[in-house]
UniProtKB/TrEMBL annotation:
It comes from Arthrobacter pityocampae. GO terms for molecular function: acyltransferase activity, transferring groups other than amino-acyl groups. It comes from the Bacteria. Residues 1-139 form the N-acetyltransferase domain. The keyword Transferase applies. This is N-acetyltransferase.
Length: 139
């Protein structure tokens, strides 16, 4: 597996987002293209045959905070270290920042049962354990 910086070709990104069922991103390819272009960093995981296996992207000021916007791994490549490699790459690039943040599914959901222990293993903690609160707004 090879981790590289830079957005993949749009058709490859669309195929990956489709494979994980993130249709909110794929129903408007131009919007996905703008999202990738507007990211502070996009890192990708590629297999030896040139297949796109995973992608992570950040929104950041590059100094004080890094928000991990997306982390996705092709279903055929899950549980093979792809997500770990992508997140460890990001942690290395943003280790000088004061805070790395991400949002994921709430406790009690099916995805949380897998993702929460994974994020904890990489040093992430729920905001409440850091004496922080997170708020969201959907227009």
């Amino acid at each position: 597996m090879r981790i590289t910086a830079g957005a993949p070709p749009l058709d490859r990104a669309i195929a990956l987002y489709d494979a994980v069922g993130w249709t909110a991103y794929t129903r408007d390819p131009d919007r996905l293209a703008r999202s990738l272009a507007g990211s502070h960093l996009v890192v990708t995981a590629w297999d030896d045959d040139g297949g796109l296996r995973g992608l992570a992207r950040t929104v950041s000021d590059g100094e004080s905070i890094c928000y991990i916007q997306d982390l996705l791994v092709h279903p055929a490549s899950r549980r093979r270290g792809v997500a770990r490699a992508l997140l460890e790459d990001i942690q290395g690039r943003y280790g000088h920042c004061m805070f790395l943040a991400l949002s994921t599914d709430a406790e009690g959901t099916e995805d949380a049962a897998l993702s929460h222990p994974f994020y904890r293993a990489l040093g992430f903690q729920p905001h409440a354990e850091l004496r922080l609160a997170a708020f969201g707004y959907r227009p």
